[in-house]
Amino acid sequence: MELHITPALALLREHHLLDHVSNLTDFTATSVSYDSRKVKSGTLFFCKGNFLPKYLASAKEKGAIAYVAEKEYPEGEGLPAIIVNDEQKAMSLLGAAFYGYPQNDLFIIAITGTKGKTTTAYFADHILAQSTDNHIALFSTLDRILGNKPEDKFKSDLTTPESLDLFHDMRAAVNNGMTHLVMEVSSQAYKKNRIYGLKYDVGIFLNISPDHIGRNEHPTFADYLHCKEQLLVNSAKCLINAETEKFIDVYYTAKATTQPEDIFLFARRGANIKLPDNAQIDFEYRNDLEDLHESEFELTALTEKAKQLNLDGRYKTSVPGDYNEGNAVAAIIASGLAGASANDAVEMLNHVHIRGRMEMINSNTHGTIYVDYAHNYASLKRLLAFLKRQTNAGKVTVVLGATGDKGISRRPGFGKALTEEQPDEVILTTDDPGFEDPMTIAREIDSYIDHDKVKHIQFEMDRETAIKKAIDGSENDDIVVLAGKGEDPYQKINGEDVPYPTDVKIARDYINELER
To answer: Which residue, 219, 196, 230, is CA-closest to 97?
Structure first.
């Protein structure tokens, strides 16, 4: 991989990003990086994010050939300085060019939504693994899968990574023979221009509800919605859950850049939906069976363009929760648009397991423990409502916390969900407190709970201890819900990723200890 200065500057000019160039020489970069620790001879270095001038000095010392920044730095004296008006946009464009535009060699399904992105991604990944003979890459909140060898699979650190990392991984996937890619796209990826210029073959809009709104994320819900909608603007075909909040706004955003015949709408049968003029629901689905182990539903095409995909039929999923049926439907339709058949979906949907999503741990004497990533009002409410419908539970205990420094809107949301679903006991604890005091966060959640409806609330800031307390206090017919962290293997505390055993491991190990 390499990038010559002449086409690089032309690309920046085309997008009106280039301000000026100092000390221009004729060079070809043989490496790109925004991390000075990874710079080697011939690297084009990007001064991005929480940048300190000493990083540029280090990059220069290690052999950087030029740098891209929003202003000139004395530490880069003697190097060609490519000065741009938006560093993140420039890095995305030049990163794609350096890696040879790998997106052009992949059929890309991109997914956004306040909840359900990961579940939908795994459903689609499994279906396309069947239809493409395992030539499918996956970029998810949990995993990055670039190929079929063990070394091609690793855990993700961001839902949507920095642009240089994203295009590097796309190139690796293409080099590994992958032909399709399923990727989650976060609102922050658009807010921070990590994926500027990237286009998708199919863009899925699952839903939106208030989340990621706070001092370090989106300033308003309108900004959050705008960033989510950019996925549709950048997709050749759009697939929208017509039951989403702000559906009219979402639909017209898609229609502004996409022909109506390339917009597909789906909804649950009988859903009360106000449709825009001339719009039709293309697919509807009807629940046939749901329990704690699987869901079964029927999918029906209603329009001619939907019928051409031949996806009508009955499907089972191994991921419980009636709310996951919509995620499965989105995956089936998107995979159909990518060339998969109904049989591919029928074959694979019942074999999907997603770490930290509705994981169930049985015990002999301390009830059933459910571990789920539910981390906002909508997901927590749906989880608790589903469990209440599906079980004849005795006592229901919920263990949860809220993240620090971001997602501030989750705190009143948690209080509202707990008030509405009225678990018997709540243990408020820590969950990635960042630079905030976890007890302060817990007290804030508590302030939004109606204590006439939820009477028993404890505070335990050690999450492992909180989980053990919940299990200790439960008997055979009871339920313990461990919400928020799923399979996260660390706690974010004061700027550090502190290793954490995961909720699943703590609960399993403790149950085994109690029942020896």
So the answer is: 196
